[in-house]
Amino acid sequence: MPKRASRSASVKKRPVQQVFMGKTLSLSGDFGQDMSYRDMARLITMHGGTFVKDVTDDTVILISTLDDFKKKSSQVRKALKLRRSCTIVGVKWLIDSLPQSNAKKRFMPPKKYALNEQLRVDPKKELVDRKLHDIYTDSTGFKYEVKLHRYENEVKAHHEKYTLYLFQSRAAPHTYMTGAKFNKGYTPTVFYRDIMCRPKTLQDALQDFKKLFKNKTGVPWEQRLEKREGRKETEFVFEVPKLGRPVGELPVEYIMPEEWKF
């Protein structure tokens, strides 16, 4: 008597949904370590799309960072020349279009995610007057513009980001202040000024910066390069500088992790 096939063997794997079928997509900008070009290209092709390194006449979607869009990178300029045939969107469009679990997804309307629309509804704001202040750079060449990230699930949906700043006045004697801004998807940017973003000494402003960093990440600023396990879901992750770039001043007794030695 022939053996009955096991239930697990008879269950067919669910095919990957081809939500980008027939679409040619490209990228522009640095999306951070959690969203590399290789990962994004793989997601696009896995779900039926065609990924091209450079924008061509066939490109219908350019996924760009807001910074690249504002400064009009070469990729953005190429896409703009295509006019209505190519829409420039943020990475949230890609995330929202990806199937999650067994939920059905469709090709999300790119017009709703167009970066030009985002700029139109989100007026330009600043934490400080940038004509009077610069971002503080320490003796190692590290610029105090620190990005913290948090994602809601494994497919990196609902991306949230804090950007922490330490400012230095251009006028002497210098004063310093800490501020932050928060971004989540296409919601308006939230600016955190309160009592921290006021002129102080470097020591006091730096303490504000470190306190804010630990409050959002759960990690002391001095331990920012250490590998961490057991992070709470509510905590953000520090986007460490790329290897070889300044990491900021560290305590004299600090022992640099092996992965940072080169």
UniProtKB/TrEMBL annotation:
Specify the superkingdom. Eukaryota
Q: Which SMART domains match?
A: BRCT (SM00292)
- Which InterPro entries does this entry report, sorted A to Z? BRCT_dom, BRCT_dom_sf
In this protein, which residues make up the domain named BRCT?
15-98
Name of the protein this chain belongs to: BRCT domain-containing protein
Q: Which Pfam families does the entry link to? A: BRCT
The organism of origin for this protein:
Scytalidium lignicola
